[in-house]
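Human:
Focus on the backbone:
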Amino acid sequence: MNKIELGLSICLLGTIIAGMKMTPAVQKLIPPQAYKIPKDEQGEFQGGMTSLVSLTAIIGPLLMTNLFSYFTSKETNIYFPGAPFMLAAILSFIGLLIAYNFLSRKNIFD
């Protein structure tokens, strides 16, 4: 492993660790009024959010590595190593549409 690969690996690992440490703090910034959740049910909500994050941490790498493997193999008709990034962009856009639809409701903070 050369110095560039080592540096990139350390940066990637640092980013992953920072993301894992920041998730609870970012979830805490979401006001309870945004979801109209009673204060005594906030822990249950935060647990559900953490479970979703954990599931995506398991499913995401499996899905994306298999997608990359398929689109870079010799058996495929289309050589497209950017397929995981395309799928990530599509899923992010769908998430953006869902968030916009949810947050554009007029009575969200009432």
About this structure: The two ends are 56 Å apart (CA to CA). Residues 42-72 form the longest helix (31 residues). The mean pLDDT is 80. The helical segments are 3-29, 42-72, 83-103.
